[in-house]
């Protein structure tokens, strides 16, 4: 399996050199391969969101190496990082962040339009993904007309719209009731496994973590493999 993401001895300190300095990551290392679905579990406040932001090129580490698709990115320009993030990384958050004035199919098409795809191709891909998550009958509905589980499924489809190589998800079903969470998470796993991308999914739910290929624990700024 080919390497998609590699972090080596990544540290992240906020307000360095001041009395308010806080070290969130302290020598964190991990490797994700294509086709792997990996759980990231951590105590509250342990830095999992920071780790996901560094891995997804939304934030830069204070030190250490980040390699995405074989490319070291610490010295890359902002423009190069933005292109790589847009083309290679999909994000899903606990709250869906859908644009309320747009329909489901428009929300999924938008990142493709931003990447330069034609309106027709973006809409076709959006319809295909929404049908894959069981929302083929809800294409024209706006977020307010969808249930919480349906909104999150639209968010999953949007994250996969540009065919990323890496999916990063931060408590993607944490805002749903247990039954809906389980059902929606199963759809996400199916989609991820069908596309063969690498996925790092932060969750507090041990049952969801157990469905993934392996589990990493983040504690005191470092990552360890769960038994």
Automatic annotation (TrEMBL):
SMART domains: AAA (SM00382)
InterPro entries cross-referenced by the UniProt entry: AAA+_ATPase, ABC_transporter-like_ATP-bd, ABC_transporter-like_CS, ABC_transpr_LolD-like, MacB-like_ATP-bd, P-loop_NTPase
Key words, A-Z: ATP-binding, Cell inner membrane, Cell membrane, Hydrolase, Lipoprotein, Membrane, Nucleotide-binding, Transport
Source species, domain of life: Bacteria
EC number in record: 3.6.3.-
Recorded GO CC terms: membrane protein complex; plasma membrane
Molecular function (Gene Ontology), one example: ATP hydrolysis activity
Domain ABC transporter: 5-227
One matching Pfam family: ABC_tran
Family annotation (CDD domains): ABC_MJ0796_LolCDE_FtsE
GO BP, sorted A to Z: lipoprotein localization to outer membrane; protein localization to outer membrane
Keyword Transport: yes
Family, as annotated: Belongs to the ABC transporter superfamily. Macrolide exporter (TC 3.A.1.122) family.
This protein's name: Lipoprotein-releasing system ATP-binding protein
Organism whose genome encodes this protein: Amaricoccus macauensis
């Amino acid at each position: 399996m080919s390497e998609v993401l590699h972090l080596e001895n990544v540290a992240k300190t906020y307000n360095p050199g001041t009395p308010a300095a806080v070290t969130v990551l302290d020598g964190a290392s991990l490797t994700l391969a294509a086709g792997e679905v990996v759980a990231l579990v951590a105590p509250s406040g342990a830095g999992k969101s920071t780790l996901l932001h560094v891995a997804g090129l939304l934030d830069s580490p204070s030190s250490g190496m980040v390699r995405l698709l074989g490319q070291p990115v610490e010295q890359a320009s902002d423009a190069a990082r933005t292109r790589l993030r847009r083309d290679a990384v999909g994000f899903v958050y606990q709250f869906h962040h859908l644009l309320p004035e747009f329909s489901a199919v428009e929300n999924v098409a938008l990142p493709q339009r931003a990447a330069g795809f034609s309106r027709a191709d973006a809409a076709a891909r959006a319809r295909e993904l929404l049908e894959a998550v069981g929302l083929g009958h809800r294409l024209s509905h706006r977020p307010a007309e969808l249930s919480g589980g349906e909104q999150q499924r639209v968010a999953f489809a949007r994250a996969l719209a540009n065919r990323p190589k890496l999916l990063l998800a931060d408590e993607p079903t944490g805002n749903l009731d247990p039954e809906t969470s389980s059902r929606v998470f199963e759809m996400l796993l199916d989609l991820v496994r069908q596309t063969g991308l690498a996925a790092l999914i932060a969750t507090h739910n041990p049952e969801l973590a157990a469905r993934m290929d392996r589990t990493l624990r983040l504690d005191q700024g470092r990552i360890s493999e769960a038994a």
